[in-house]
Amino acid sequence: MIVYLNGAYVPKSKAAISPDDRGFLFADGVYEVFAAYEGRLFRTADHLTRLERSLKALRIEFGDVAVVEEIAQTLLERNDLCGTNAKVYLQITRGAAPRNHAFPGADTSPTIYACASTFARPVEKRRVGVSATFVPDNRWARCDIKTVALLPNAIAAQTAEERDAEEAIFVRDGALTEGSHTNVCAAVDGTMVTAPLSNYILPGITRAVIMELCADFAIPVREFPVLFEEVPKLDELFLVGTTAEVMPIIEVDGTPIGSGRPGPIAQRLGEGFDGLVAGAVEGGA
Length: 285
Description:
Layout: E1 2-5, E2 8-11, H1 22-26, E3 29-37, E4 40-41, H2 44-58, H3 67-78, E5 85-93, E6 111-118, H4 123-128, E7 130-136, H5 151-162, E8 167-172, E9 175-179, E10 183-188, E11 191-194, H6 205-216, E12 221-223, E13 226-227, E14 236-241, E15 245-252, E16 255-256, H7 264-281
Parallel strand pairs: 7-8, 7-15, 11-12
Antiparallel strand pairs: 1-2, 1-6, 3-4, 3-5, 5-6, 8-9, 9-13, 10-11, 10-14, 14-15, 15-16
């Protein structure tokens, strides 16, 4: 695998990052994951806008984030991934400096790392639906920043693995916030309901895409907390994310959601998402 590290494209086995890197020492960095379909990056501008926002929130000086698109496209080409579905992972940390909690001087250059790999679209999982589990949301209060500080998310994902569930859904103050690596949406009486944007959820790119599709399909949307106690009354519950795309949840911790099968709103939105992907492959997005 060819990866990108600080201006160079090198074999992954040759890539080396300083043990003084603040991403390693303090989780002082941000990341993005881009999907690419047959060599076409999907919603790149939206990802770059979010990346810029994350960098600004952490006060990491980077410059023009537009260079990231060129890096991602080059990685797809150099790893022969332009004819398949792939994902590009990008991470930017504050850089390497002597260990001190306060930020290093302005002469410290950020560490920029990116890699690309294939991913399988969750076609079968979308068709049959998946299970999920609930976990307490014990993360810090700036979940809206896409930082590499993901230990609570990793523990939640491991909990889901141990419970034979596809995803762990965080619950804070009696309401569903998001998944360990996805946003969460519900459907009640023909209306899609999802938690409003706040410091407790990531402004997901796929979440925004799904809301656009709802407008196109005349599906009402309500940005309102989905209460934990109301989960048994939901008609549908589904995950949305860069690699999850639109994934129906058919049961949570043994409790069926709705009919116990993928519901019509998730299916319609999944079909709409497929259409957008097809448009991207043809060069229309």
